[in-house]
Amino acid sequence: MQSSERLDLTFSALADPTRRAILARLATGEATVTELAEPFEMSQPAISKHLKVLERAGLISVDVDAQRRPRKLEPGRLGEAVDWIERYRQIFEQNYQRLDALLEELQARPSKRKRAKK
Amino acid sequence: MPKPAEVTLPSDREVRVTRTFHAPRQRVWDAHTKPELVKQWQGYEGWDMPVCDMDVRVGGHYKWRWRNHEDGSAFGFFGTFTEVDSPSRIVHEQYFDPGDMDFAMPVGDPCIVSLELDEQDGVTTLVCNLAFASKEARDGAVSTGMTDGMEHSYGRLDELVMAAA
Fold first, then answer.
1. Is A85 near chain B, with CB under 8 Å?
2. Is the CB of residue A16 less than 8 Å away from at least one CB of chain B?
3. Which CATH superfamily is domain B6-162 in?
4. Alpha-carbon distance B160 to B15, whole Å?
5. Under CATH, which number does the domain A3-110 receive?
6. Sign of the alpha-carbon dihedral angle for B104, B43, B26, B8
7. How many pairs of residues across A and B have Cβ atoms under 8 Å apart?
8. What element of type H or E holds B29?
9. Span A59-83, pLDDT tens digits
10. A interface mutation test: which of B19, B21, B77 has the most A CBs within 10 A?
11. Closest chain A CA to residue B137
12. What is the C-alpha to C-alpha distance for residues A34 and A70, in angstroms, rounded to an integer?
């Protein structure tokens, strides 16, 4: 899968508040489907659906060897999505720092109109 | 120092950048609409901006082009202003100019770039919203930056950077 397709999956998985809450919960440690369903007052099938989306996006994984089949966070993919935004942010920020400098210079420099009046 | 830029994804096909400037709104507006000022900050380390034509009025066109100091390669953006409400809001439709043609031609759907400026106590908040034609266009426009062939993807990344203006 290409990185842009992976990002598509990651971002659409993250575009849902329940799924973000599940990730936040899993950030504190692994949990079973039953444990995850509890705080959300959702049926297990509904939670399982969300978990499938997260799993497909590579954001969580299932420990198939353990009897309880706990879900756990896969921080790598989340990091990739954060990097994407961060890289983007930095490019804007570099431009805006140059703009800061220009604005400061304009502030310090008397405007042409004022100078002409003198 | 102003707070660093914040980037959010308000929908599947949008990117929004928010930044504050310690300057009056009119001055930030001028820096975005007067070519002689735009040329001084908008761009990229190692690139200069030989073309910066802007006819800032509704229906007016603009053309920006950057040239790499080292290898002379060029790319740019061009488009049309669709809303101009000085000094608070400007919207333009933007096309990417990949730089290998003598003249720019619209390719695909434009990115709708809107810039809003709001001033509170001498601090100006800028919100720049980029609305792409599709989610694929949005993700494709920046995700190339993930692949570490950074130099070659600068053109696409710059598309978004320059769209900030």
1. yes
2. no
3. START domain (3.30.530.20)
4. 9
5. 1.10.10.10
6. positive
7. 103
8. helix B25-33
9. 999 988 888 899 998 888 777 777 7
10. B19
11. A4
12. 10
